[in-house]
Amino acid sequence: MYTNKRKPTLKWHCTDKCKPLLESDVSSIIEVRQYFDEPIKELRKHLDACDNSPNNYYMTRSLHVEEIDQVHEHDFSDNPNVTVIVKKDENNVEKYLKYSEIVCE
């Protein structure tokens, strides 16, 4: 049984190519692809469920963010908790941000 009473935290495990997703980035998302084809609102529901659970002081939330060059099938098949967000940068070039390791425990 957990005895840690602290509130869940959102931890960024970043590589040198990644950065936290800013609110301005969220508004510029043009497409969301996930193993179960869930839209971003489903991902948000999952994260909100962690925060709104009556036992949320037992929970942690972890998110790994990584910029990838292109989307491969194994990005989805290896882990059902992987989301790839496609957005365009200031030069109208598509960028892929891979999110994974969403943990709610």
Descriptive tags:
5-stranded mixed sheet; alpha+beta; disordered N terminus; 105 residues
**Got a strand count?**
5
Strand content: 25-35%
Q: Tell me, rounded to a whole number, the average pLDDT.
A: 52
> What is the share of helical residues?
10-25%
Number of domains: 1
Oligomer: single chain
Report what the structure shows.
The chain contains 3 helices and 5 strands; from the N terminus they run E-H-E-H-E-H-E-E. Residues 1-21, 23-39 and 56-61 have low confidence and may be disordered. It has helices at residues 23-27, 40-52, 73-77; strands spanning 10-14, 29-34, 61-68, 83-88, 94-100.
Topology:
Elements: E1 10-14, H1 23-27, E2 29-34, H2 40-52, E3 61-68, H3 73-77, E4 83-88, E5 94-100
Parallel strand pairs: 1-3
Antiparallel strand pairs: 2-4, 3-5, 4-5
Short description:
It is built from three helices and five strands, in the order βαβαβαββ. The N and C termini lie close together (12 Å). Helix content is 22%, strand content 30%.
